[in-house]
Amino acid sequence: MVPHYVFLNPDGLRPFGLGVIVQAPTGVMYGNQCDGHLNEMRWAEGFFVPLHSVDLSLDPDDDEVFNVEHALFDFFKKGFRGHPYMREVWTPSHFERLALLVSRVPMWHATHPDQVLGERLHLALDRERLDEVTEAWVPVLTPYGPGILVFENCD
Question: Is the C-alpha dihedral spanning 66, 18, 48, 16 positive or negative?
Fold first, then answer.
């Protein structure tokens, strides 16, 4: 099978929000610019799922709306100032904060075509792949298997 390459936001003019590349043998490679000012290009094979940028409270009496996309952008911008690739500055508390933010990313899971809405679940930081974490490229666990959470790079 000849792979197909899809570069997310190739001209940098139209942010796509949050998305996850669910890693699977599809023959489609998705690329995203990441790693802060280093501007590394990373690729993953799978299928791309656009995600909501906001999470709602699970408590029906609470009308909290949490913008996960903005929180992730702020986490990297304020915490690393465009240099998330410098591993020596990462602390356990950085990974804990990132795990908390990732856990607020909603993703719907359907197991049958008649299941229109499916089940609202959330992503989880893949702690087995922390060495891959950088701005705009975060290894996660999805309801469909391992994936990469992608979003706009700060540059």
Answer: positive
| CB neighbours of residue 77 within 10 Å | 14
Q: What is the pLDDT of residue 28?
A: 97
The segments of the chain whose pLDDT lies below 50 read: none
pTM: 0.91
Distance CA 12, CA 99 (A): 27
CB 133 within 8 A of CB 139: yes
pLDDT computed for residue 60 by the predictor: 62
Q: Is the C-alpha dihedral spanning 114, 18, 40, 71 positive or negative?
A: negative
